[in-house]
Amino acid sequence: MISTLHIKNIGIIDDLVVDLNEGLNVLTGETGAGKTLIIDAIEIICGGRFSKEMIRKGETNSYIELCMFEPENENSMDGNIIISREISTNGKNMCKINGRMATVAELKDFMSNFIEIHGQNKNQELLNNKTHLSCLDGFIGEEIRPLKEEYKTKYTRYNEIKQELKQNYGDDKEKERKLDLLKYQIEEIEQANLKKDEEHELEEKRNLMLNAEKITQNLNQADEVLSEQGIDAISIAIKSLEKIENIDEKYEKISSNLKSLYYELQEVSRDLSSYNEEIYFDEEERNETEERLDLIHSLKRKYGNTIDEILQYKEEIEQEVAHIENLDEYNNKLKQEQAKLKDEMNKLALKIHKTREEKAKVLSENINKELKDLEMKNAKINVHVNFKENEFYKTGKDEVEFYISTNVGEDEKELAKIASGGEISRIMLAIKKVLAETDKMPVLIFDEIDTGISGNAANMVAKKLSEISKNHQILCISHMPSVAAMADYNYFISKKVVQERTNTSVRLLNEEEIINEIARISSGQINDVTIKYATELRALKVS
Hints:
alpha/beta
């Protein structure tokens, strides 16, 4: 239930805090006092749309906070759930659920479990045919629960097998496609005949090819200088030293060192000549090297960043091929189990359908009785249960939708296509009355549900609201004395001018004030006659 509502800077509302209670809470007040703004604020904090024009003149933001008491909800803190939404003129939109930031979509989804708003031009949850099946099943209750649970268990396993077969290539076409792809990849890698260090060697070879002219030119120059100047010069020096090496040991040592250097230079010269001869590459060899590197790079793009990774990938897909080729026996067992589950699900779904079909008639009759009480004697609700032969849903094979004919001789049509706001409100009230004990929605809000009705219809609306409030917290904006008289708590909404600004206020009425308010809305005047009438209406609540 909503325990506290805090609204700031919306329309003529400055800063308003309202403490609400269990049962039937009725809000009354003069036209333009801000009753609809309160409902609008609740809609906004339920994730509804917000227009910047709603921000109070002269302010930069609007703020709405809601405290709900739901002790059995997993999201509650000590039974309390605090939701807030702040919207600024600059477009900033901040939503929080128990202090946690949330998107508007998350807020809307969360609040859809707690608050349902009915009234003129409001989004009606019951007009959404996606909720009709749960309404019917809620009405049926325990009778259908074991069947649904058994079906759900099989449905879950059925889909697990379906997913496993997909992963295991249980579909023959998918399996063959996968095998063809893997075998093609293996063949492509095998035909490449890759060697681990091959790419590095080819890159070096290509680098030599690209720089062949430069290398040859410099090798020739080095060899030429070394041969013509270095070696010949050292040779002359050696001959000179040989003539004096017998005179002193030091000359002999220098001569020996020069001879060693001479032999080393000759070796270097031979190496230079050898390297120069290796630099020659013909065009065919160049093309072969480039093509080989292109092939390796192509395989790397497909199968790995290195040759080692490509070869590792080949081993892995060879194992996968072996795995797939040996899956047939296991997949066949899964397919047999799946076929058995499908047959069992069909049988259960048919039982569920028959139960729903039978109870849909009872639900339709009960709603139609409520519609008669609400002065809609010619309206007929018909709950359709359509069995989908070739479909499996989480809840069976049924699609459920409420249809209605509002006048004698008219064709029935989808509930969502009803045009009259007054009719919608009473139809919603009739449905909620029938589903009151099974409907899990904690809070129901009715915005001027009594618009366009009077007399006995208004009295019956009041009675139905009171009965529904035994299982739900009800917030109802009303102009009808009979509705106000049935309230557990009455709130008076008024406005006044303070410092040249209009402000809305809400006040919980005591019993004497309640009688006066019923008298006021019954005729617009408070006198002995209207007080007596109000007292008699109020007495009906006790009786």
